[in-house]
Amino acid sequence: MSTHRPSRSRRLALLAVVAVAGIAAPSVAAANTPATTDTNRPTAVQALDDTYYQDAMGKSGPELKAALHTIISDQTKVSYDEVWDALKSTDEDPDNPSNVILLYSGRSQSKDASGGNPDDWNREHVWAKSHGDFGTATGPGTDLHHLRPTNVTVNSIRGNKDFDNGGQDVPDASGNRTDDDSFEPRDQVKGDVARMILYMAVRYDGGDGFADLEPNDNVDNGSAPHIGRLSVLKEWSAEDPPDAFEKNRNQVIYDSFQHNRNPFIDHPEWVDSIWK
Ligand SMILES: [Ca+2]
Ligand SMILES: [Ca+2]
Ligand SMILES: [Ca+2]
């Protein structure tokens, strides 16, 4: 597959096509969806509601989760080796196209400084791959929606810990904290982490030989296909709504790599609709 990232004008043109199609030819299903009262919703998301999310609109709870599972499971998959180049696009520093932004430390670092040395960046599985034991075979272990560049040392400190508040400051990653059984990312990416975990829960329901991933409210989940703590992740999602960087990487994954979306970046309110 191509790892070429379309220019911004190309991506805007694609969105415009979607927008025009959505306005000019509403389908029967869209016409049956209750009209939105949110007149402030950006045009791009409105266009997605009329197209990509059409079968989810008007649903809530388990019905919404099931509809989203079907929608986002229609995707292209990348290999673990292709993840390196993909992350150079999805996590590119908007102020320096030679660099990526590292998830936990927030550091801007050369795209070329990847590998296994302590100060390199590598491929962090935000849904730790041991939780459900999916490894790096093409599937959940190579899904760009939860893979992020991180400092090798910080990645190792996070390990496969569940997420929760509390602990000691993480060296070289200001604002992150950890203790024996959990990891707390810095405030700026708390919501990003929550929405990545919840994407994985909706996307992976036990098909294709992989475990049914689901959040729970525990720490110390070990190799069980669960990540906690759900109540804390819900708080983080509310406290840190999607910003331009997170929205852009969702769009780049959609346009250039997997052609599926993280619904919780487009519709953060769906978190509370599915997990009460
Ligand atoms: Ca803890
Ligand atoms: Ca954020
Ligand atoms: Ca699931």
TrEMBL record:
Specify residue ranges for compositional bias: Basic and acidic residues. Answer: 177-186
Q: Which UniProt keywords apply?
A: Endonuclease, Hydrolase, Nuclease, Signal
Q: Where is the signal peptide?
A: 1-29
What InterPro entries is this protein classified in? Endonuclease-I (IPR007346), His-Me_finger_sf (IPR044925)
Task: Show the stretches that span the lipid bilayer.
Answer: none
Any GO MF annotation of the entry: hydrolase activity
The reply to whether Membrane figures as a keyword in the UniProt entry is no
What's the protein name?
A: Endonuclease I
